[in-house]
Amino acid sequence: xxxxxxxxxxxxxxxxxxxxxxxxxxxxxxxxxxxxxxxxxxxxxxxxxxxxxxxxxxxxxxxxxxxxxxxxxxxx
Length: 76
Hints:
- The protein is mainly alpha-helical.
- Helices cover 38% and strands 5% of the residues.
- The protein has a two-stranded antiparallel sheet.
């Protein structure tokens, strides 16, 4: 079930509270505890190539763009 399907179903069930509770009990997506999709970039939302050091939570592409703004220096 995709996210758009999920939103459509919830919109349809707003007027039927008993059916909505039953639907949510059995079909609610679970919070991820492991895997690549547990963390995503706070800036763009990518899942892969995640930098979590220093509590940054950015993908490597976003980190390269804003590294100097947040105080990192490039040594070459």
